[in-house]
Amino acid sequence: MNAIEVKNLEVVYPEFTLDKIEFNVPSGSIVGFVGENGAGKTTTIKAILNLISHAKGSVSIYGLDNQEQELAIKKQIGVVLDDAFFYEDFTTKEIATVLVKMYHNWDQPYFNELLKAHGITESKVLKELSKGMKAKVKIFAALAHHPRLLILDEPTTGLDPVSRDEILDIFYDFIEEDKAILFSSHITSDIEKIADSVIFIDRGKIVLTTDQAEFQEDFGIAKLTASQLADIGEIDYLYRLKTAISTQYLISNRRMFLKEYPDIVVEKATIEATLLMIKKGEVR
Ligand SMILES: Nc1ncnc2c1ncn2[C@@H]1O[C@H](COP(=O)(O)OP(=O)(O)OP(=O)(O)O)[C@@H](O)[C@H]1O
Predict the structure, then answer these.
(1) Which atom in ligand 1 lies closest to the alpha carbon of residue 154?
(2) Does the entry feature the keyword Ion transport, yes or no (predicted)?
C-alpha cells in the first residue's frame, strides 16, 4: 500500500506553477525530496497537508482523500514544517499541554524521554533555545503521538552533524512495514544516508525519481573530451552539460557504460551533482 499517492497535483501562483505532479510514497519506505530553492518542495508538502485551498488534483494518504478525510488523516501523521512553529513564549511542557489535546495517543513519557536524551529541559521557553534545539523540539513533537507517516520539510536544517546523525537514527528506527517518511532537505548527504528513493523536483515539475540503491549502483556522470565525443558520437543520457573542457552526461547505466567505454571518466553520481546537472544542464 502507498502511504501517500499524489496525482495531477497542481498549484498555480502568479510566478510559479506546481505542474500536475505525480508520485507515491510506498509504505515501509523513506522518500527524499530534493530540488533547488523555489523548486516547489514546500508547496508540494503544504498541498499534501491540504494547506493550500486552491490546489487541484488528488492526494490520498493511506487511501484516504486529503480533503474529505482530513481529520482522520491528521491523527496519523507527524509534521515538521519549515516556517511554522509553536508560540515562542511556550515552554516544551506547555507545548505538550496543547498537543495532548490534539492527539489522542500523545505519549508524554516518550516526548520527555526524547527531550531529556537531547539535553532539553522542560522549563525553558522556546525563544531561549538554540536553533538546533528548536529543530529537535519540532521533530520530537511530530514523533510523540506515534504517527504512521512523517512529513518533514527541512527537518535537519540548523542541526550539527552529531545531532543530525542522532535524528536520522530516530527516523531510521521509526520505519516499519506500514510506516513511511517523506523528507525534504538541502542536506543531500542526509537523504543519501537514509532514503530508499529520491524524488527530484525542478521548477515545479518532478524531473527524476530514483531508487537509492539503483542510483548509487548505476547513475554516473560521464565526462567526455571533444575528441572522445568525436570518436564515439552522442551517448544516451538524462542531462547534458557542456563546460569549457568537457561535455558531462548524467547517465543511468554507469556499469554498462564503463564496460563499453573503459577509457572514459565516469564518476558516481551524487544527489548534489545530479541537482547541478538538472539545474545547469539540458534535458535529453
Ligand atoms: N503563498 C504564495 N504566494 C505566491 N507564491 C508563492 C507562495 N508560496 C510559494 N510561492 C512561490 O512558489 C515557488 C516555490 O516555493 P516553495 O517554497 O515551494 O519552494 P521550495 O522548493 O520549498 O524552496 P526552498 O528550498 O527555498 O524552501 C517560489 O517561487 C515561491 O515564491
Answers:
(1) 27
(2) no
